[in-house]
Amino acid sequence: MDNNKLIIIVLIAIIAILLVSLVAMMPNINKQETKLTLMNNSISEGDNIEILLSDADGICLSDETINFKLTGEDGVVISEDVTTDSEGKAKLKVEKAGKYSVDCTFKGEGEYSSCSLSENIEVEKATTEVVSESSADNYPEYNPDLGYYRSTGIGESEMKVVELATGRYVVIAGDGYYDYGGQDAQGNIIRGNFLGHGGTRIY
Q1: Domain limit, last residue, from 105, 124, 143
Q2: Residues 116-133: pLDDT tens digits?
Q3: Beta pairing class for 147-156 and 159-164
C-alpha cells in the first residue's frame, strides 16, 4: 500500500471519529443549563432536606426527578428519587440526627441539561416542647413549623403576623417565615430576617 492511500485511510478514519463525536454531542447543544441549590443546611430530626431545581434564568422546574444520595457518619447510605413540586423543590425527610453528606443529581430531561450538587448538612436532635394547658388556650392555632400561636390581626391570608407561644412575632408569607419588623407609614408589613421555608422549625 503506497503512502497516499495510507494517508487517505487515516484521514477518513479521523473524519469518521469526528462525525461520531459530533453526533454524540448534538443532543446537548441546545439544552438549557440547570442548577441545584440546597435550601437548608441545618435541620432538626423529622424535617426535610430541600433541594431547588432551576434553569439558567432562575425559573423553578417542577415535575422533574432528583436523585438523593444521603450518606451518614456511620456509612449508611440512603438513595431515593424524588419529584420536584410546583415550586421546583424536591424534599427528603431525615429521621435521625447527625452529620450527612448530600449528593443530588438531575440527569436532564428534554430541553434541560444535567446537573449535580454535593453538600454537607447537619441534622440536629429534636427538642421536646412542653405546652401547658394555658398556652394551648391562649395560643389556639398550631402547625409543626411554629408550634402554638395566635393571630395578631395584622395582615391578610397571603401575608400575616402571628404571635408564637414563645412571645416571638413572625410574618407568615407565601415564600416562608420572617421576623416581624413592624409596619411602614402605609400600614404595610415590614419583613425582617428570613427564618426559613415550610419544614423549618421556628422558635
Answers
A1: 124
A2: 999 999 998 876 555 555
A3: antiparallel
